[in-house]
Amino acid sequence: MPARPPWLRPSVLRVEAVSGLVVALALIPEAIAFSIIAGVDPRVGLFASFTMAVTIAFVGGRPAMISAATGAIALVVAPLAREHGVDYLIAAVLLGGLIQIVLGLVGVARLMRFLPRSVMVGFVNALAILIFTSQLPYLMDVPWMVYALLAVGLVVLVGLPRLTRAVPGPLVAIALLTGFTVVAGVVVPTVGDQGALPDSLPVLGLPAVPFDLATLQLIAPYALTIALVGLIESLMTAKLVDDITDTHSDKTRESWGQGVANIVTGFFGGMGGCAMIGQTMINVKDGRARTRLSTFLAGVFVLVLVVALGEVVAVIPMAALVGVMIMVAVGTFDWHSIRPSTLRMMPLSETAVMVATVVVTVGTHNLAYGVAVGVLVAMVLFARRVAHVVEVTSVVDPDGSTKLYRVSGQLFFASSNDLVYQFAYGTDPENVVIDLSAAHVWDASTVAALDAIRTKYEARGTTLTVVGMNDGSRVRHDRMAGRLSGAH
User: Fold this and answer.
1) Could you tell me if 295 and 42 are in contact, meaning their C-beta atoms sit under 8 angstroms apart?
2) SS3 helix, strand, coil % of the chain, rounded to 5?
3) Please, what sign has the CA dihedral across residues 412, 414, 417, 421?
4) Residue 190 in contact with residue 315, Cβ under 8 Å?
5) Cα→Cα distances 79→75, 220, 421, Å
6) How far apart are CA 121 and CA 117, in angstroms?
7) b/e string for 448-464 if b means 16 or more Cβ within 10 A?
8) Closest by alpha carbon to 191, among 51, 24, 68, 40?
9) What pLDDT digit, counting tens, does each position of 61-87 carry?
């Protein structure tokens, strides 16, 4: 008899279902808000959250991660929707999904190993800040009762887990505050105030746009941005969940899975999306979900809640959901990274990379920009640091006819540019030997520098011999030596 899947166990099923329900409740107002940012009907964001979550539950590479309509994608598609309409937006989502599939199949996920830890920390901290600041509009120009409800919600969210984890704190807080506002007749902003909820199922179809070169030229830049932003946010979120759960996920599958989910979403008239860090943290940390079932149920619950139970969902006070998201932000932020003891211990360059990632991400509300700048700063600082660890020492032969130079370190464009100035061409004897046994040649810049050194010695009648190259350096040197312009 085949073994029963883990998610069919009653205890696991309960955890996954309850966590999926809490995630769905948090998804609804955000999907509506992201629809407003994108300039489209709330149905477009809500249907995207349903189709993204359900599809990625089957094709994604990271169990328990939540994908839905996101603010990052909304910011990307907003100009296209505003200037050309929702049909062109959907066409861009379809093309963006196709690009993600191609990128996934060619192995773009393997580039994740080049992300420094400081960029990852900056990414996490920036997301926490964005999650927190995204809740502030719900706390401005509102009745004083909103703040009272928020305070009670935070007390429940902080205190309940210390008493029992049998019931998720977010679900209790939402139910308690909703029940109070309905029974007491308290008038505060609710989910229903954010926009009209759909009363029908999404319909399969194609966008009403001309399928010609002009349309492709129009939507291609937006589609490429959708693909890149979605992959960066999804892969970074997957890595974060890997660390939290001490498990490994299939990043390549997640990459093309995001593409499949966006294509399905586009066919059902959704605005596209990617992994959501806030809802994923609710699912994994607060709900303790670990399987694909929670992701699937989150999408199903979104559709059921907004279509069949729209009137009930509409009366949930926004204060309850704001409290949940604030606690998600607090739990997401890496507080250890800003402790004075950590900052004193950490190299200044590592802190600079983290700060750059945070500042750019928060300033632009674009995770792709933040991660790209963080990686660029890390590369520049690393190259600058490594460039200064190349050392050249010299020893003159006792008879005075030969001088030996020993070069140690990593030779590449940043370090080899100064290499040519480390030799005494005018005073060296008739024979010079450069020993590279403690060095490694990495690029054409170094080969060009060695060619320049040889040219300078030959112009003075000095015989130069280069020895000690390892296999990789020798192959690279022999292939390009004497063939590079400007090597003299």
Assistant:
1) no
2) 65, 10, 25
3) negative
4) yes
5) 8, 14, 53
6) 6
7) bbbbbbbebbeeeebeb
8) 24
9) 999 999 999 877 887 888 899 899 999
Predicted structure pTM score = 0.72
Integer Cα distance of 238 and 165 in angstroms: 25
Report the alpha-carbon distance of residue 148 to residue 70 in Å, rounded.
Answer: 29
CA atoms within 13 A on the CB side of 386: 18
Q: Which amino acid is at 300?
A: V
Residue 389 has a CB neighbour count (10 Å cut-off) of 10
Query: What whole-number percentage of the chain has pLDDT above 70?
Result: 96
Please name each of the domains of the chain with its CATH number. Answer: 6-338 (no CATH), 391-480 (3.30.750.24)
Strand partners, 425: none
Pairing of strands 391-396, 402-411: antiparallel
Q: Identify the residue whose tokens are 């509102």.
A: 142
Contacts of 163 (CB under 8 A, 6+ apart): none
What is the per-residue pLDDT across 215-242, written as a single tens digit (0 to 9) for each? Answer: 999 999 899 989 988 898 899 899 889 9
pLDDT, tens digit, 9 for 90 and up, residues 169-223 = 788 888 899 999 999 999 999 888 877 778 778 889 999 999 999 999 999 989 9
Gap between the Cα atoms of 291 and 123, Å rounded: 25
Query: Counting Cβ atoms within 10 Å, is residue 170 exposed (0-12), middle (13-18) or buried (19+)?
Result: buried
Widest CA span in the chain? 102
The share of the chain scoring above pLDDT 90, in percent, equals 39
Measure the CA–CA gap between 94 and 205, rounded to whole angstroms: 12
Tokens in use for 12?
Answer: 């696991």
- What whole-number distance in Å separates Cα of residue 276 and Cα of residue 257? 15
Judged by DSSP in three states, 465 sits in strand
HSE, side-chain direction, 13 A CA sphere, residue 472 = 8
Residue where the block lists tokens 């006792």: 398
Name the token pair of 152: 């009670």
**Cα–Cα dist 123/118, whole Å:** 8
Answer yes or no: is pLDDT of 148 > 90: yes
Q: Can you spell out the DSSP letters for 346-388? A: S-HHHHHHHHHHHHHHHHHT-HHHHHHHHHHHHHHHHHHHHHT
What span, in angstroms and rounded, lies between the C-alpha atoms of 383 and 90? 42
Query: Which tokens go with 420?
Result: 């040519």
Type of residue at 478: D
- What's the chain's average pLDDT? 87
